[in-house]
Automatic annotation (TrEMBL):
Gene3D superfamilies attached to this UniProt entry: Ribonuclease H-like superfamily/Ribonuclease H (3.30.420.10)
One GO MF term attached to the UniProt entry: nucleic acid binding
Official protein name in the record: Transposase
Spans through the membrane: none
Length: 353
C-alpha cells in the first residue's frame, strides 16, 4: 500500500494536514523512498489540489481516449509541453500526463525525433549588438585580406595563457578500449597544480616568434605589456627578416592591457598595424582555437618540478613542431570569418578546431 501511487498521495495528504511545508514533505518522503520518491512537481501538484479542496487521492477524470498510445492528440500534448519546458524529464512527463515511460519515449524519439542532450558550453551568451559586431568585424577582415595578397605573411598573432607544473590529462586522453564483459576503467580525480606561470606567446605562419614568461609575483599590466611589445619588435627584427618593412599586422584580443591608450600608442609607435577583434571572441583568435590546446597536449599528465623544466618541455614542443602546423592555424581564419557571418555572429560548436 505505502509503495503504491495512492499510498504516497495519502502520505502527502497526511503531512499536509499537519501544516507541514511542501519542501519539508518532499524531504521526509525522500528519506523514506529514496530514488522511488515522487518528484517535486508531483508533490506540489497534490499539495495544490488539497489546498483547492480536492478531498481524495484520485486523479481528475480524464474524458476521451486513455493516454496509453501514441496518437496525434498525445503527440500534440507532449510537443506543447516541451515547448514550455525543454528540461522536463521523462519522470515529470509521466507524472504530469499520466502516460507510461515506454509510450513517452516512443513519442519523443520516433514521432517527434527528439533526444536529450547536454547544453553546449560557450564563452558567453552574446547580446544582439555583440553578434552584429562580430559579423561586422569578420566582413571587414575578409575585405582587408582579399585586397592585401601578403596579408597572412604580415600577420603576427599573440595571447597569454597559464601553464601549470602539473595539468591532468583530459578525459579523451585517458579513454581506452574495453571488451563488453570488462568493467569500465577508473581513474582518480586530479586537479591542476597551484604552481603555474603565465606565458605571452606571439607567432605567425612560420612558427613561434617569442615567448615572454611572466615573473613570479608580477602582475601583467599596461606598462609590462608595452615592454613585451618592444621585445616582440626586436624578436621580429632578428627572426623574420624583412617583416618589419612590410608593416606587421598585429592581432590580439580585447583584454584591458591590450586596449589601453598607452598600449595603442605604443603599437603605433612601433609601426604595427592593429587588426580589429570583436569582444568575447576566442573562436576568432588563432592562439585560442589552434595553438594553446596543442601546445599543452604533450604536457598533460607530466609533473614538472620547477619552472625551468616546464620551459624546457615547451621549447622541445616548439622545436619538434613543423612550420606547416602554424601555417594551417593562421590560414583557417578566412573560413572562420565566413562561418561566423553565416551563423550571424553566434558561437559554433567545437570552435577549438
Amino acid at each position: 500500500m505505502e509503495n503504491s501511487e495512492d499510498g504516497k498521495r495519502y502520505i502527502i495528504w497526511f503531512l499536509w494536514k499537519q501544516n507541514i511545508s511542501g519542501s519539508e514533505i518532499l524531504y521526509e518522503m525522500e528519506k523514506v523512498y529514496g530514488s522511488k520518491c515522487p518528484g517535486k512537481s508531483m508533490v506540489y501538484k497534490w499539495i495544490d489540489r488539497f489546498n483547492d479542496g480536492h478531498s481524495t487521492v484520485d486523479d481528475y477524470p480524464r474524458p476521451g481516449r486513455p493516454k496509453t498510445c501514441s496518437n496525434q492528440e498525445n503527440i500534440k500534448i507532449i510537443s506543447n509541453f516541451l515547448d514550455k519546458d525543454r528540461r522536463v524529464t521523462l519522470r515529470q512527463l509521466e507524472e504530469e500526463l499520466g502516460m507510461s515511460k515506454s509510450i513517452l519515449d516512443k513519442i519523443l524519439t520516433e514521432q517527434l525525433g527528439m533526444s536529450r542532450v547536454l547544453s553546449r558550453w560557450v564563452p558567453k551568451l552574446l547580446s544582439e549588438s555583440q553578434r552584429i559586431e562580430r559579423v561586422r568585424v569578420c566582413r571587414q577582415l575578409l575585405r582587408i585580406s582579399k585586397k592585401e595578397p601578403r596579408f597572412f605573411d604580415r600577420l603576427v598573432t599573440g595571447d597569454e595563457t597559464w601553464l601549470h607544473f602539473y595539468e591532468p590529462k583530459t578525459s579523451l586522453q585517458t579513454s581506452q578500449w574495453k571488451r563488453r564483459h570488462e568493467a569500465t576503467p577508473i581513474r582518480p580525480r586530479a586537479v591542476a597544480s597551484a604552481g603555474k606561470r603565465m606565458a605571452t606567446v606571439f607567432w605567425d605562419t612560420k612558427g613561434i616568434i617569442m615567448i615572454d614568461w611572466l615573473p613570479n609575483k608580477v602582475t601583467i599590466n599596461t606598462e609590462y605589456y608595452v615592454q613585451v611589445l618592444k621585445k616582440l619588435r626586436e624578436a621580429i627584427k632578428s627572426k623574420r627578416r624583412g617583416k618589419l618593412s612590410s608593416h606587421v599586422l598585429l592581432q590580439h584580443d580585447n583584454a584591458p592591457v591590450h586596449t589601453s591608450r598607452r598600449t595603442l600608442d605604443e603599437i603605433q609607435h612601433l609601426g604595427f598595424e592593429l587588426l580589429p577583434h570583436p569582444p568575447y571572441s576566442p573562436d576568432l583568435a588563432p592562439s585560442d582555437y589552434w595553438l594553446f590546446s596543442e601546445m599543452k597536449r604533450p604536457l598533460r599528465g607530466k609533473r614538472f618540478s620547477d619552472f625551468e623544466h616546464l620551459r624546457s618541455a615547451v621549447n622541445s614542443w616548439i622545436q619538434g613542431t613543423p612550420e606547416k602546423f602554424f601555417t594551417t592555424g593562421i590560414n583557417k581564419l578566412p573560413s572562420k570569418w565566413k562561418k561566423f557571418i553565416e551563423v550571424k555572429g553566434e558561437f559554433i560548436e567545437n570552435y577549438e578546431q
